[in-house]
Amino acid sequence: xxxxxxxxxxxxxxxxxxxxxxxxxxxxxxxxxxxxxxxxxxxxxxxxxxxxxxxxxxxxxxxxxxxxxxxxxxxxxxxxxxxxxxxxxxxxxxxxxxxxxxxxxxxxxxxxxxxxxxxxxxxxxxxxxxxxxxxxxxxxxxxxxxxxxxxxxxxxxxxxxxxxxxxxxxxxxxxxxxxxxxxxxxxxxxxxxxx
Length: 195
Ligand code: SF4
Ligand code: SF4
Description:
The protein contains eleven helices and two strands. The protein is mainly alpha-helical.
């Protein structure tokens, strides 16, 4: 990988933007900060740094600002909805970049505290689909609570949801359960090959 980033003594080392470009082919430097991505992002109001600001943090190529991006809540809130890509005049694949930043945040131990809960939710969701072939809400909630320790959060809502038939206590099977399990196995196998 050729880097033109920060000078550290005699050696140039890669900035986070350069590493991202190398890993996922998305260049933060192509962004000219028009803000169209942020204007269309459904989660921008909840983010600590809006999508175009995340790119700006990378463009400065300063370690402390790169760390701000990796510590941000924004990268965990991104839904990968691709609104930003469709609006961007530079066709910058922000969701792909956000995914890369999430991986780096995890690897470098810089994860936002709320990011842990979001990751636990994703894992519980996928565990449920892997096991039952579809989402099983009660199992998902139980698994999420065990992973996060938020045992009593929203517990008062459960009786109302059960009474309205919104939560099923027993898993509802599907015909293609084995096929869904094979999809997960194939993905795990492919992941193993890439590592
Ligand atoms: S829309 Fe594209 S060019 Fe404009 S700020 Fe967002 S990422 Fe940058
Ligand atoms: S993909 Fe992420 S950053 Fe882009 S609009 Fe959707 S939530 Fe916002």
